[in-house]
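Is iron/sulfur cluster placement plausible here? Inputs below.
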Amino acid sequence: MKNNDQSRVFDLTDYKRQDFSVCLGCKICASVCTVNDLSENTNPQDILQKLFLGKDIPADEPLVRYCTGCYRCTGACPWNIRIPEVIRALREELAIESPFEKAFKGSLSIWGRVYEPYVLLMAIPFLLKGGYMKHMTRWMEYMGIHLPHKVKRA
Ligand code: SF4
Ligand code: SF4
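Reply from A.M.:
I modeled the complex. Tokens:
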């Protein structure tokens, strides 16, 4: 994305370029990022820094492609920066739709709400292709789906 296109990102998110100057560079966002659990080695702070400095953000940046919109970064950030909204605006600008986003939209159009098992089902081809199924147990914990386990009696 060229610098002069970034105005759309600020329009869509209601952030101004200078708002990102508060970012402390602490990388707490990176430490909790769901995409990093897929071993993609991403750093949300890097995207904010590039926007702040007006640097190009490539369309193949893993976070732009795979951000799940889980808001873990926002919850952990000392400034509660709405990183997934920034990433959604970047996708809008770059006309990119992640497999998860497609699945979310499909679920909304059918049930009017996000139905997690459907999202998971629709994402399976992508997960298989990328070799991400090994992380399934952890994702189920994120989604609040817990496998039955034996209760130890006293
Ligand atoms: S919303 Fe996106 S950038 Fe933030 S923690 Fe989740 S996957 Fe990472
Ligand atoms: S957690 Fe917030 S302040 Fe820290 S690096 Fe990430 S975006 Fe910046």
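Short version: The pocket of iron/sulfur cluster (ligand 1) is lined by residues 32-35, 44, 63, 67-73, 83-84 (CB under 6 Å).
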